[in-house]
Amino acid sequence: MNYPIIEKPLGDRYYMNGELISSDSIPAEEMSRPSPEVKYYETVRIKDGILLFIEDHMARLAKSVKGIEDFPVDTSFIMAEARKYVRDIAFAGEGNLRIVLTSDKLVFHICEANIPSPDHFRFGINTNILNWERVDPNLKVFRGDYKAAVAEAFGRVNKQGLPYEVLLTDRNDKIYEGSKSNFFAVIGDKVYSAPDDKILIGITRSRVMSSLDKSGIELLTGTFTLAELKQADAALFVSSTPFDILPISYVEGYKFNSVNNSILTQISREYQAATEEYIMRNK
Questions:
Q1: How many domains are contained in the chain?
Q2: Is the full-model pTM beyond 0.70?
Q3: 53, 42 in Cβ contact below 8 A?
Q4: Which of these, 31, 108, 38, lies nearest to 77 by C-alpha position?
């Protein structure tokens, strides 16, 4: 299934191959139509005018390209151009920058940002489950069938209404990842995450792991069914660039007391401190 290069854009100016183009220009209209080329992408959080952890995003982008087409990727150039684009359009506030790379195009645009509200952090989020094992999960590439299945799961109402995130399960019904986030389970004094080869290695996930190290909390490899998590009285959370770290209160109507978990609170505190330090260092 073909998909456009530009998706859910905001603003009236995009970047393409070194130039600012108008959103109503012919090149912009062409990139808004589905096209067959392979598209590699990263969504980078903008906070206080800083592109958060963009170095990590660029390393993952280069890895995605190498895994499929293996053309040269100048990550230093992309980072410099991305920062210049944010300055040139005078972007203020908090949002997301979409970076899309094909074999012959480099495109930036501001995109819709699903930034959590204070209530999502305070009360936790509602989630649905989708039984789906991703192909090449370590590579961040547009895949039409996956996007369609996820969209259907987001539109399915459960007891708490529409979900904020969709959790993916494997052929054994074990939850291993979120549709746009990494998934963690806190059981007792241990934190569990799926094996690296089963998931997209998230940028925020690496910061979660650093926060665990600083807190002296052990991270183990493990996946669990919904029933097993309920029986273990687990606390659940997801991490991603748009979400930061969000507690999960409901999975398909089942309630989890994640927001009051002391380990999750400690991880969140360490992560926020690391984010603020990065912003101050890069201002």
A1: 2
A2: yes
A3: no
A4: 108
**Within this chain, do residues 190 and 103 fall inside the same structural domain, yes or no?**
no
Amino acid at 25: S
pLDDT tens track for 20-46: 999 999 999 999 999 999 999 999 999
Q: What is the CA radius of gyration of the chain?
A: 19
Q: Are 116 and 246 in contact (CB under 8 A)?
A: yes
Confidence (pLDDT) at 138: 59
- Same-domain pairing of 60 and 129: no
Range of the domain at 100: 9-111
Give residue 142's identity as a one-letter amino acid code: F
Residues 191 and 264 in one domain: yes
